[in-house]
From TrEMBL:
Keyword Cytoplasm: no
Annotated protein name in UniProt: Large ribosomal subunit protein uL22c
HAMAP family assigned to the protein according to its UniProt record, in alphabetical order: Ribosomal_uL22_B (MF_01331_B)
GO BP of this protein: translation
Highest taxon, organism lineage: Eukaryota
Record organism: Symplocos ovatilobata
Assigned keywords, A-Z: Chloroplast, Plastid, Ribonucleoprotein, Ribosomal protein, RNA-binding, rRNA-binding
Compartment(s): Plastid, Chloroplast
Subunit and interaction comment: Part of the 50S ribosomal subunit.
Any one GO CC term of the record: chloroplast
Length: 159
């Protein structure tokens, strides 16, 4: 049996009171980035979802330094996902004895941090990081673009 050292550590936040859609908007910005760059991004973003995600990333880095003895400069966010949690429900009294249901969504956030110095093949890590730096700002959607959208006339040619 091979003795393989773990290179990934995670932090899990459950029942965070916000919509999963709003948390995903922030998570998509930090996925695949380094730990220090992620902290800077989260401090400057104006969203309410940034604070619990900031705490989770800080916790994942603390777990990595305690469990694996790794430094913060070698950490990257390898996986970050948001799942929907339970919905808190309460009743608000309305006129004429009626009630109105108020739904407050919750979400579960998982942050997985990877130490790139503990991998066996360092060349793969360097290649991956250079690829990330090169392709980070490229457009995701390089498919077909319709430049001449109105060239066929459409409804404007009819009289």
């Amino acid at each position: 049996m091979l003795n393989k050292k773990e290179t990934k550590v995670y932090a899990l936040g459950q029942h965070i009171s916000m919509s999963a859609h709003k948390a995903r908007r922030v998570i998509d910005q930090i996925r695949g980035r380094s730990y220090e760059e992620t902290l800077m991004i989260l401090e400057l973003m104006p969203y309410r979802a940034c604070y619990p995600i900031f705490k989770l990333i800080y916790s994942a880095a603390a777990n990595a330094s305690y469990n694996m003895g790794s430094t913060e400069t070698n950490l990257i966010i390898s996986k970050a996902e948001v799942n929907e949690g339970t919905t808190k429900k309460k009743l608000k009294p309305r006129a004429r004895g009626r009630s109105y249901l108020i739904k407050k969504p919750t979400c579960h956030i998982t942050i997985v941090v990877k130490d790139i110095s503990l991998d066996e093949d360092e060349s793969i890590n360097r290649d991956y990081l250079t690829w990330l730096k090169k392709n980070r700002w490229k457009n995701k959607y390089t498919g077909m673009i319709y430049h001449d959208m109105y060239s066929n006339g459409g409804i404007w040619d009819k009289k």
